[in-house]
From TrEMBL:
<protein>
    <submittedName>
        <fullName>1,25-dihydroxyvitamin D(3) 24-hydroxylase, mitochondrial-like</fullName>
    </submittedName>
</protein>
<keyword id="KW-0408">Iron</keyword>
<dbReference type="InterPro" id="IPR001128">
    <property type="entry name" value="Cyt_P450"/>
</dbReference>
<dbReference type="Pfam" id="PF00067">
    <property type="entry name" value="p450"/>
</dbReference>
<keyword id="KW-0503">Monooxygenase</keyword>
<dbReference type="InterPro" id="IPR050479">
    <property type="entry name" value="CYP11_CYP27_families"/>
</dbReference>
<keyword id="KW-0560">Oxidoreductase</keyword>
<keyword id="KW-0349">Heme</keyword>
<keyword id="KW-0479">Metal-binding</keyword>
<comment type="similarity">
    <text>Belongs to the cytochrome P450 family.</text>
</comment>
<dbReference type="InterPro" id="IPR036396">
    <property type="entry name" value="Cyt_P450_sf"/>
</dbReference>
<dbReference type="InterPro" id="IPR002401">
    <property type="entry name" value="Cyt_P450_E_grp-I"/>
</dbReference>
Amino acid sequence: MRRCVATCGAVPRPIRISCGRLVPGFLATVHGEPPVKLCYSTASQSIVHRDECKVATPLTTALPFSKIPGPKGAPLIGSLVDALRNGVLGKTHEFFQLRHRQYGPIYKERIGGYTCVGLNDPLDAERLFRVEGRYPRRVDMVAWEMHRRHSNREAGILVLNGPEWHRNRTIVNKPMLRSHSVAHYTPMVNGVCRDLVDQWRHHRIGTTVADIRQDLFNWSIECVGCILFDCRLGCLEMTRRDDIQQLIQSVHVLLSATERLFVMPPALAKLLNVKPWRDMVAAWDYIFAIAEQQVNQRLEVMRQEQERGITPSGFLATLYCSPKIRTDEIYGNVAELLAAAVETTSNTIHWALFLLAKYPESQGKLWKEISAVISPEEEVTHDTLEKLPYLKAVIKETLRLYPVGIANTRMPSQDIVIRGFSIPAGIASSKRSNV
Ligand code: HEM
């Protein structure tokens, strides 16, 4: 299964689909949202609504792809103009909601040369994910692939597909997802969290912290630096090194430039050398430069440790000791992990703090749970985290209400039928994250 490498295999799923069980979200209940009833029919191997209990349409009798509703659009550009007018850039989540209000639970849209089917029902999404096979494929990050070729660098698991993705992913899973690996970097991450809280204590104005968003962004890069490089980058320092300041800036720029490149063919963007293309290339080049510099420094330390008979440990040590991955592939994976880690975690924590402030009863309950497990002078360990189910629920509920990834996409390797429509292999389908 293709899943996030850092969130326990958890795609931020809104509602766990289980055999007829009702799984309402705890904060959603506070919101007054109605819970959803779902069931999975194992007998027919098809996903069914409890109320409808309809068996899946076979491919032979399905309606053709052309019958899927959606905006007509003009030749070449498709519905680009309408999409831009309705916020596809900047307010993409609202744009997706609008399309579903206009066309129902399934629609198709062509923006530029790129066609996508939008799904709004978790059961349809489940069907999509069930056919993903051994090498699941997201919508290709064409602009990023072009950057790797253009700069003669190796791609990592965020960009790779097929057997190469699988080989890299198998190696990266080991230091990222195993619980004893978490134990290795917990003390350093604890230090980063302490520094952030101290910073907030000392620099708040009254009860207000001036720029919590940027602070959390910096905190996030610092944490991932600890995990990947086993060292502090200094993102939380009041006077940051120029290279670290530029790294922070590059991660910001990368994401906004990439969003813009989604609405124009990347080959044309490269040919015309438009600003989003130049920004994206410069941002990736910088992230790679820092990744390469940090990896080289750490590899040198590990070589020296080995000479002294010390077995190196940590994320890079696992990769370094694996004969199945080359150094340029390590650079690619580390650069991509660095880019993927930051906005995801910082925005999620931002929303979690917002929700805890909005629902003081949940905040009180969480405080009580934490106080019962850890005393103020105690360090958080992997074991203590296991004893905090309410904390885990708060994070999961935050991801359900405010998912950082707006949609999760797949390009299935075989034709599928969803809602009675045939969708050819290779066509991208995306599920809104908060359905
Ligand atoms: C709240 C935090 C996070 C959320 C909600 C999140 C969410 C996601 C989602 C939805 C995907 C797509 C999975 C799929 O295609 O099925 C993904 C992929 C990925 N994430 Fe995360 N992520 C988070 C944190 C991180 C962090 C901290 C890192 C790096 C340290 C990271 C690295 C990646 C990578 C490398 C992939 C591509 C994995 C692959 O295709 O094999 N993510 N993430």
